[in-house]
Each structure stands twice: as C-alpha cells, then as structure tokens.
C-alpha cells in the first residue's frame, strides 16, 4: 500500500475534509521498502529503499537516504539520493546533500559543499 493510499483512507473516515495539506514524514528511525506515490508533501529523515513517484514537494533531510528514482515537482536535498531524479520545477542540493545519478530539471541549485556525481539534463520537463 502506498503512503498516498493510507492518507486517503485516513482522511475519508472523517465527515469533513480539512483543506490543509498534512506533510508525510518518514522518521529517522524508519526503514521503508517500497514505492511512495501521490502525496503532496513528503519529508524523509529515515531510509527509503524504493522509488518516489509523482509527489509534490520532497525534502530529503540530513539523516535521510533514498535508494531509488524520484519524480517530483520540487526536490530539496540535505541528505543522500542514490538514483535518478526528475523534478518538473526545481532541484536544490544543499551543502550537506549528496546525489549520485542523473538530475533532470528546469532549475538546479548546488550549494558549495554538496556532493554530486552524475549527469544533468536541463530544460522543459514532460508532464
């Protein structure tokens, strides 16, 4: 079951839907094996062994690691990604961030101190 399906089931039990977006958090003590899709905002502080598909805003925290491919609107990386990254809007690799793989985006920021090993594809993203 994907994280988005869990969120939909939990929110459908209440009579009123809250318009506020509740971020999904993978805690630093969690290890998730599987894919995550369809959530509007996710922050990963733990480890994900799998792909992240069609999410809105993604933050990989300093203690976070993703071993898999990512497709999101925006991606901010303080931790580590081992896999290909596609962002329709932007990718930011912060000074503590480490990315190994291809980055495909329209806007890329790499701070001094960040580690990047791979290729970069810049231009308009296909939706």
Poorly predicted runs: 4-17
Q: What is the total number of structural domains? A: 1
Query: What would you call the shape?
Result: globular
Overall mean pLDDT stands at 87
Which percent band covers the strand fraction? over 45%
Structural class: mainly beta
**Count the strands?**
15
Q: Biggest sheet, open or closed, and with what strands and sense?
A: 9 strands, parallel
Count of helix runs: 1
Order of helices and strands: HEEEEEEEEEEEEEEE
Radius of gyration: 15 Å
**Helix share, percent:** under 10%
Determine the N-to-C terminus distance. Answer: 24 Å
Protein name: Polymer-forming cytoskeletal protein
Organism: Sphingobacterium alkalisoli
Family: Belongs to the bactofilin family.
Pfam family, one: Bactofilin
Protein architecture, described:
The strands form two sheets. Strands 1, 3, 4, 6, 8, 10, 12, 13 and 15 form a nine-stranded parallel sheet that branches. Strands 2-5-7-9-11-14 form a six-stranded parallel sheet, with no helix packed on it. Helices cover 8% and strands 49% of the residues. The protein is mostly beta strands and 127 residues long. It has one domain. The model is unreliable at 4-17 (pLDDT under 50).
Structure at a glance:
With 127 residues, the chain is mainly β.
Topology (SSEs and partners):
Blueprint: H1 3-12, E1 24-26, E2 31-33, E3 36-37, E4 41-44, E5 47-49, E6 52-60, E7 65-67, E8 70-77, E9 80-82, E10 85-93, E11 98-100, E12 103-105, E13 108-110, E14 115-117, E15 120-122
Parallel strand pairs: 1-4, 2-5, 3-6, 4-6, 5-7, 6-8, 7-9, 8-10, 9-11, 10-12, 10-13, 11-14, 12-15
